[in-house]
């Protein structure tokens, strides 16, 4: 059973329409809340339909969800869950807990499992349990984890997370970590790319960040971007490839 | 709450295009073998704490054995989301049982029968819960403390035995259990036997991981021990240079 074929882009012609988010999504807990991160590439087949999409959607003031898989399926799921949580908040008189939000996502994912291709990571902060991350992969399993990764790019991150993950990071360490991790996946996964978006949620509220593609660190075999070859030659020190 | 619950029930059908018909699916996140056996004081059950996603060992700290009511343990292999749903059905069942407040509580035999009906009826609709479930427990009956161990799988096949294994365990652990299980094993002997089976599965089942949980159930109640790892043995001289006499051999 090939799991990667479920998440990767099909060879549909660019005009056939089905938008998939071959994606890298990450969620980590730190010592005061959670940081969610995602790339920004949405593809239809080989064409990049949107190079700056926002894959981290708001469910409530204090709970957000990272979406991977079919763009349409995850949009509809988060719309329904936002709607239910809105009613739930009014009826209960207090913000929804992260557990309730994740379980609503699970309910839709599980009951419609034959029709959906949606892998999601729900993260948020509430006053009862603090920062929490819940993974809802294909099929509708729900698992609470200290960190979670998903999407086609996550294949390249399992080893890295095993090696580098630590519990109890500070907010700054966690934000830097997720940007590094997503940008490493972007470097190797053709279906991930663009910018790295992060959302930090804690007791003080929510902070959205934007890390443009040209500000991400460079990895193996990647070169410092230039304006033009002419600038390199003008600098007088070209790494000339002589015959 | 009622309003939003009604919406939750109808919305998925609408989201699915109104058809609502499912059919046999492929499993996504799957748990491995579960092994169990009767011993002197009750039933002992064990499994690893891994859940795979295809060939990726994706989740490594998953509890696949849970207590059910006062008298039983359930272990599940197969699609993990279906196992979580079965746990919810069992919550409902044990809650209504408790609400009868009649001094009686469902024993392992009854829970096994309930699960068998659920699994078989889903199979008949071509919409199975993709699991193999192991149900074990002890309940005081007219003949004393009656130990019970049974299993039911996604097509509704069910039976009772002194020892059970699901998945790869059927091939690797059952022969060991058939040879070495005896009536009235002590807890220590049972643990040793189970660990022998878990180790064989670790060596030979590609999807197993070295992190296990053992659980037991006696008339005193259930205990699920914390996860632990087993030492593996690679100290065979034949392992060191297998291609020496025959280059290219595997």
Description:
The complex is a heterodimer of chains A (243) and B (250). Chain A has 243 residues and is of the alpha+beta class. Chain A has helices at 4-7, 71-92, 98-111, 158-164, 171-188, 229-234, and strands spanning 20-21, 25-30, 33-38, 42-44, 47-50, 56-58, 63-70, 118-126, 130-136, 143-145, 147-150, 196-202, 205-211. The longest helix of chain A has 22 residues, at 71-92. Chain A starts with a helix and ends in a 9-residue tail after the last helix. Chain B has 250 residues and is α+β, with helices and mostly antiparallel strands. In chain B, the strands form 2 sheets. In chain B, strands 1, 4, 5, 6, 7, 8, 9 and 10 form an 8-stranded antiparallel beta sheet that branches. In chain B, strands 11-2-3-12-13 form a 5-stranded antiparallel beta sheet, covered by helices on one side. The model of chain B is unreliable at 1-18 (pLDDT under 50). Chain B: It comes from Lolium multiflorum. Chain B: This is Proteasome subunit beta. Chain B: Its main location: cytoplasm. Chain B: Belongs to the peptidase T1B family.
């Amino acid at each position: 059973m090939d799991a990667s074929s479920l998440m990767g882009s099909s060879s549909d012609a660019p005009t056939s329409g089905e938008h998939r988010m071959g994606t890298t999504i990450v969620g980590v807990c730190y010592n005061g809340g959670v940081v969610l991160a995602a790339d920004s590439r949405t593809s239809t087949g080989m064409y990049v339909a949107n190079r700056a999409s926002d894959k981290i959607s708001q469910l409530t003031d204090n709970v957000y969800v990272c979406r991977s898989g079919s763009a349409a399926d995850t949009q509809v799921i988060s719309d329904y869950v936002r709607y239910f949580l809105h009613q739930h908040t009014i009826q209960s008189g207090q913000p929804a807990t992260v557990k309730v939000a994740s379980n609503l996502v699970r309910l839709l994912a599980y009951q419609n499992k034959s029709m959906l291709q949606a892998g999601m990571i729900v993260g948020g902060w509430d006053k009862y349990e603090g920062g929490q991350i819940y993974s809802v992969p294909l099929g509708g399993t729900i698992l609470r984890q200290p960190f979670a990764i998903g999407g086609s790019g996550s294949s390249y991150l399992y080893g890295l997370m095993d090696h580098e993950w630590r519990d109890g990071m500070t907010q700054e360490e966690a934000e830097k970590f997720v940007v590094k991790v997503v940008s490493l996946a972007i470097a190797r996964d053709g279906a991930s790319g663009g910018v790295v978006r992060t959302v930090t949620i804690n007791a003080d509220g929510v902070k959205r960040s934007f890390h443009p593609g040209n500000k991400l660190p460079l990895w193996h075999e990647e070169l410092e971007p230039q304006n033009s070859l002419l600038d390199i030659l003008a600098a007088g020190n070209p790494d000339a490839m002589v015959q | 709450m009622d309003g939003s619950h009604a919406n939750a029930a109808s919305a998925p059908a609408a989201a699915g295009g109104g058809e609502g018909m499912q059919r046999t699916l492929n499993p996504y996140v799957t748990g491995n073998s579960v092994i169990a056996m009767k011993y002197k004081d009750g039933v002992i059950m064990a499994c690893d704490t891994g859940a795979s996603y295809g060939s990726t060992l994706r989740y490594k700290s998953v509890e696949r054995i849970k207590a059910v009511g006062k008298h039983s343990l359930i272990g599940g292999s197969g699609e993990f989301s279906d196992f979580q749903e079965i746990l919810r059905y069992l919550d409902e069942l044990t809650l209504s049982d408790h609400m009868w407040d009649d001094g009686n509580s469902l024993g392992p035999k009854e829970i096994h029968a309930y699960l068998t009906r659920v699994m078989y009826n889903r199979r008949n609709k071509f919409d199975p819960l993709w699991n193999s479930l192991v149900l074990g427990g002890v309940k005081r009956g007219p003949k004393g403390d009656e130990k019970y161990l049974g299993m039911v799988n996604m097509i509704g096949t069910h039976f009772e035995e002194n020892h059970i294994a699901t998945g790869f365990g059927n091939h690797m652990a059952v022969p060991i259990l058939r040879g070495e299980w005896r009536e009235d094993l002590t807890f220590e002997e049972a643990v040793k036997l189970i660990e022998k089976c878990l180790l064989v599965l670790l060596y030979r089942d590609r999807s197993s991981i070295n992190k296990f949980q053992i659980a037991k159930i006696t008339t005193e109640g259930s205990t699920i021990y914390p996860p632990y790892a087993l030492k593996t043995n690679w100290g065979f001289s034949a392992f060191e240079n297998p291609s020496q006499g025959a280059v290219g051999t595997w």
